[in-house]
Amino acid sequence: MTDLLTAIILGIVEGVTEFLPVSSTGHLVLATELLGYDPQKWAVFNIAIQPGAILAIVALYWRTFWAVAMGLVRREPASIAFVRNLLIAFVPAVALGLAFNDQIEALLESAVTVAWALILGGIAILVIERLARTHQVGGISGVSAGQSAKIGVVQCIAMIPGVSRSGATIMGAMALGIDRRTAAEFSFFLALPTLTGATALQLVKHRDAITGGDVQLIAVGFLVSFVVALAVVKAFMAVVTKHGFAPFAWYRIVAGAAALAFLYTR
User: Which sequence ranges form a coiled-coil region, renumbered to this chain (predicted)?
Assistant: First the structure.
């Protein structure tokens, strides 16, 4: 398989899974393992293409970002609360990410960890979907500072590959009583500072490993993940509104079990 085709496949995986509660990092690790890619060669690539998916959120929700920016200029309480909540939720990831960066990278090498995390995360989603008592909070600005802090702490669980950053934040928000749509959008917007910071940290750390050829492949993966994420996020919100998160939970369980079967029998 050529490097270009590999870049396209991984870009598709990133775009499809980044904002779904199924773990994009976990799927990239499994793709590397199941398709026989060199994990060391593609590790930095997998991180570097994340901004493509992030940019899709900016493109889809640009009106929201513009309204918040204008609201900040006018010092509107709702816009101030919007930014405050995202910053509060972002802080725990910064602290733990800097403190345990090496340990987190080590976990990325374990496909078995990913498979088990997919299964256990799927079960957790089913339980929370069944037991959570949610109510409309009026969007992200209606989330309290305390709830935002708790969502930020829960997001840190996703540093274990396979847990899913979006899944952790969405389920954490719902467990706190926040409605599905707001929980999903909180996860989308929180991805901007979280994934941008994580990507910047890893690219700076591994900058000597990036060659001119890698830059071209990263550009391809970036563009593919952006285009795919645009379509997936729209479809995701439609599915969640109608069916909830159970379909993604069952997918996680089946995918994790299949991955374990492959890993233990190869």
Answer: none
